[in-house]
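Re-running Monosaccharide ABC transporter ATP-binding protein, CUT2 family to confirm reproducibility after the cluster update. Everything else is unchanged from the original entry.
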Amino acid sequence: MSSLLETREVGKSFGSVIALNGVSTVVNAGEVTCVLGDNGAGKSTLIKILAGAHQHDTGEFLIEGRPVRLSSPREALDRGIATVFQDLAVVPLMSVWRNFFLGSEPRKGWGPFSWLDGRTARATTKKALAEMGIDLRNVEQPVGTLSGGERQCVAIARAVHFGAKVLILDEPTAALGVKQAGVVLRYVAQARDRGLGVVLITHNPHHAYPVGDRFLLLKRGRSLGCFDKADISLEELTRQMAGGAELEALEHELRGVQQ
Ligand SMILES: Nc1ncnc2c1ncn2[C@@H]1O[C@H](COP(=O)(O)OP(=O)(O)OP(=O)(O)O)[C@@H](O)[C@H]1O
Ligand SMILES: [Mg+2]
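Result of re-run:
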């Protein structure tokens, strides 16, 4: 069976800046592919290609085994690829249930005489959140009053509810404390267990390792490799992310200063 998504030696340049060069990875149903790398490593550029916001210049991007070139995020969504961006996931002043149905509101009546079916929307939102184990006091409250972690959880539940096959999360845990990050990672695992292919972008190997099945390491637009969990330990992942040899040299230097 072919992977949900696959990139083969994918590359992308912006003018003279090579943002991505020769990056290969796969996203399978019921698995989490983690994309790790420092600032400017090319993580967002890669997921924007997967999400239809950018087009690759070189290499191949395949959906279920077929080479594609997505022309818009809408096209990606129609093919079941849902992306949750760090800040753009929700409209803060709108209620939780309005956000949940944004762009896909259930309507009553017909054509110009239709109206938003708020009762159904509220009840469906409550049910979908409860199914993911998310217990919100009130779906009327503005999303802006939720914590960062809760917002991410609503966005994840939304993608699951509307039948996404692939869920892409760009640094969902970046601004969160330890406890909240743990909650978000639990929902990432739930989405995985429901059979979605998840792409999780993070700086933090401690967030990636417990949920990840595969780890793509990027550095300055190039791939340092895509490792199955069995082939890389948390220590090695941390070492690679910290800059490996560079960090050891720095540690050595700093120790020298102390003495
Ligand atoms: N639209 C653009 N125009 C020009 N250069 C860009 C554009 N988008 C990204 N780049 C460049 O491509 C490189 C990779 O950027 P990208 O945003 O993919 O990194 P990132 O790994 O997501 O970093 P961060 O962790 O800071 O979010 C950077 O050098 C960036 O300046
Ligand atoms: Mg980024």
